[in-house]
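Now for a sample.
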Amino acid sequence: MSNVPPTQQPPSWPTAPSAPRNGIGTAALVLGIIGLVLAVIVLGGLVGIVAVILGIVGLGRVRRGEATNRGVAIGGIVTGALAIVISGIIVAAGAAFWSENKDEIENLNDCVEQADSDQARERCADRFEREIERN
């Protein structure tokens, strides 16, 4: 038997803290802003829903200490919610316009289908505008 001393373990270095996982909160804010822009074509409402969901997930990460961008996640929730509200208002306004002017819209559609030139289509548009103004 040899008298070899047991090998010593090298000193351990402290492990580096993991980087914050801020991607979800950032994605929420980006989608919220995109939702606001797209709200005028109603698609923004759908993007806004995704932004709100991602913002809530991002806030959960902040609460667990996994992320550091609380304000960005809240911004995503707020902009996403605004996109949803604006899209809803536009849908409601469009539905109200449609229901009030259904006959005029159908007349315009019939006129445009029968029009054989750009001038005829222009006359259809002028007639539709006059009918809407009367109401």
Summary: The chain has two domains: 22-87, 101-135.
